[in-house]
Batch of 2 targets.
Target 1
Amino acid sequence: MTFLYKSDPTRGLEWARLFAQKAPELPFRIWPDVGDPGEVRFLAAWMPPAEIMATFPNLELLFSVGAGVDQFDFSALPQELPVVRMVEPGIIDSMVEYATLAVLALHRDLVTYAAQQREQVWRQIRVRPAAQRRVGILGLGTLGEAVSRKLAGFGFPVAGWSRSRRAIEGVTCYAGADEMKAFLARSDILVCLLPLTAETRGILGADLFAMLPEGARLANCGRGGHLDQDALLSALDSGRISAAVLDVTDPEPLPAGHPLWNHPQILVTPHIASMTQPETAVDVVLDNLKRHRAGEPLVGLVDRGRGY
Ligand code: GLV
């Protein structure tokens, strides 16, 4: 019975050390050193290998090493194979930090100031109190909820939108397609923390931008596929959107010369908002293995129908 890890090999070594310490009875291997493929019962992967079931016929559980599972082709995975997203404190904390950073940067005009600095321009923009800047969190899963709570603490009026209704203290919760328009109309800064699914691909596009207040600001902390990049460039040119912080792009890495790189109102970071931390992730994975053995519900189990 083997646990196989297939992702960044440096972090894999940390997983190996933690497994050796916390679950010495469970053999742990790092791709491509798979050993006997028939022994592989558990796989933690960013990109799973092709022909996953043909390669590992006795696989019992598939873990994503990241919060998202959009990189998996579900049609190639048997229905009965449980797929688990990474829900671990390290990933949540770093997303809270990044989303806070992005919102504060947008709120305090940092993207404009970075452009001004490149031009050696000293021009002050009047400071607006947080209470007068409405923040909207698109997606209220584990990450969106933690982010919304933190931002409410700064005094921003915070609202969130999710498919099904949530209740979060201090956060106005909108739900479903019917309430999307009202949610967007009150979002001066919009933060995308949705999972990427067939329904959410391209959601950050011209139609959505048209529903935001004039001059709204955008932070995409989800996936590059959420954003219609051309629509963003047009919205920036027209002033509909005034600045954007993008941690994700499509494709990644963003190719040299791409218009997003040099736009004065865009700040790009290379998909670093949040990373799984081996220390805390291994505890969550081992807890899920225990739950699996005991037939208990898994933390982060993906609902195939929803796609996340
Ligand atoms: C990173 O993007 C992740 O899904 O964890």
Target 2
Amino acid sequence: MPNTNAREVNFDGLIGASHNYAGLSPGNVASASNAGQTSKPKQAALQGLAKMKALMDLGLTQGVLPPHARPDLGFLRELGFSGDDGQVLKDAQNADPSILAAAWSASAMWSANAATVSPSADTSDNKVHLTPANLVSNLHRSFEHHTTTRALRAIFHDDDKFVVHDALPSQPRFADEGAANHVRFSTSHGEPGIELFVYGIDAHDPMTVSRRFPARQTRASCQALVRNHKLDPSKVILARQHPDAIDSGVFHNDVIATGNENVFLYHEQSFATSRTLMNDLMDPSKSNMVVLEARETDFSIEDAVTSYIFNSQIVTIAPGDMRLIAPSEVSENPRVSAFVDRIIEDRFNPINDVIYMDVRESMNNGGGPACLRLRVVLTDDELSAIHQGVLLTDELYDKLVSCVNETYPDTIAPEDLTNPELATQCVHASQRIAEILGLSSIFG
Ligand code: SUG
């Protein structure tokens, strides 16, 4: 039976007080090109909150995930740096600035990488399954899953309805980047769907791999997620990213493809296995798809990577009525914005309008609107069983905005990363946010 009482809840990662530009992600063009710039953490968090509020004001259910406590001085102490906090920061800087920057990274904001989620309509035990991503491909992200797992277990605490798995083994064979490489298709959110898992590396496949930039997601991790989430293998598709796309800066699939319910929006150069993928998806026994393919003649992969069009959120306002929540950068690229205008004008797809959002502070590190959110489809019963303190209301929004204004630094420049007072200020800010969300327990 289709479950019409289900909705998609977007859980956005609230951008942390230590947000900075350290160039930590090889293959992420924006991160590399903005390395060393001065960031604006307060403005970044307010931009993220404005996006959350805009979605709430559209009538959608919006959740908030807490920033992690950064800088993580415990991580630096584990690596042998000792003394007071100032000494630890200074010695780490002298030993290797990229290790120091890893400890400071606010990368947990990109909650599309927090976990992979399968709704109860797709799982054989009828529970919602969440697996935190191990993010082993990058040092600064590889320890996010500790806090993420605690936060998800605190939010999705009802064991009768939710299973929050441990992250997959932290080993390159099981490199996992979460929902950024996962798209779910269904006639409506509450009905059983087809889950598409996208990977860049397969240890058993001799095909050419990306050469310039690393691929981050393995086929082995996708297969483990399918097993853990108790998915029906006939309702799962595994597809390989095109290595040339990875080499052009498509470090996650959500930089070049996205979907919502029966809509699939992607660039023709996304997948190494496009034809098979389309055949599988278009199989009428599986779903009734609306396929929106951008061709090279519409715009190039480079346009996709600079505008982040595919990192838009497609959201359902009412049955058959969707909006595209796109980064402002799309409106600044005439080829890409013309493509969006054609989608909006075309009556044969359900996307009826575009809303441009300014999330530039995050975009400068390679994180667009969709990177900032984790999608969780929940029935009414499941929604009422989660920790309610993370669901955005006008009151919660006001509290978070005040807290950001009071506790966040205005700017962070690379040389600030050795400042122990700033370190304390940033950790304190994350504790205050966790208190507001009723999640203080995640910091022990
Ligand atoms: O993993 N950037 C993140 C961006 C993640 C975007 N998420 C999705 N596409 N879903 C990354 O590359 C840059 C940090 C720095 O350079 O300071 C960074 O981690």
